[in-house]
Amino acid sequence: MRYEEKIFKLKGETLVIIDWANVYGWFSKLKWEIDPKKLYNYLKKYSQIKEIKFYFGLDNNRQSKNFNYQIKKIGYKVVSKSVKWVPVSLDRSHFKEFLQELHRICDGLEQSNSEIAKQLKVAMELPIYRRKCDFDCEIAIDIMKNIDSIDGIILFSGDGDYAIVADELIKRGKQVIVVFAPGCKGKEYEDFKRGLFLCSVNQLKTEIKK
Length: 210
Known about the structure:
six-stranded parallel β-sheet, alpha/beta, 210 residues, 9 helices, 2 domains
């Protein structure tokens, strides 16, 4: 790779952190997918990068286990844990207005087809679950454990929850690069006056697009 092709100008030994749940969610904004193997191969071109850690929530199914195996085979140091499925309260979520409209439709259906209305109401009472597997604590701990042996980090996640860690690293003279997708960057990063390097993942598109 020629020098001018390098997006990152690294200052020394660098730890790469990839919060895959966050990165995978970028597709809805980007309309293109990141290829984990291409991403790994691109990052390995930087001699300063000493370790690439991949944080991934593991589901109890063949597809998830196979993905976990493939990521390890590529060469990533994988940190995984089981996904939790937590119930969502529709009345307190962004589904509230939708639920109210659905009830209104059900009331109308009762006038014309009571069986359909009955089935719909039964379905509406079934619990809804969402996938949850945050690595905020694990990532923060791993970074702080390595803080004395690295000169900087590249964080693939726009989650503003990591801003406090980025701030601490900068105070200790470390280089901090945050890779994010447009529309997926926490507002917490707007408060940084200096020391933080923000990189849109679109700058890496030609290298890492699936």
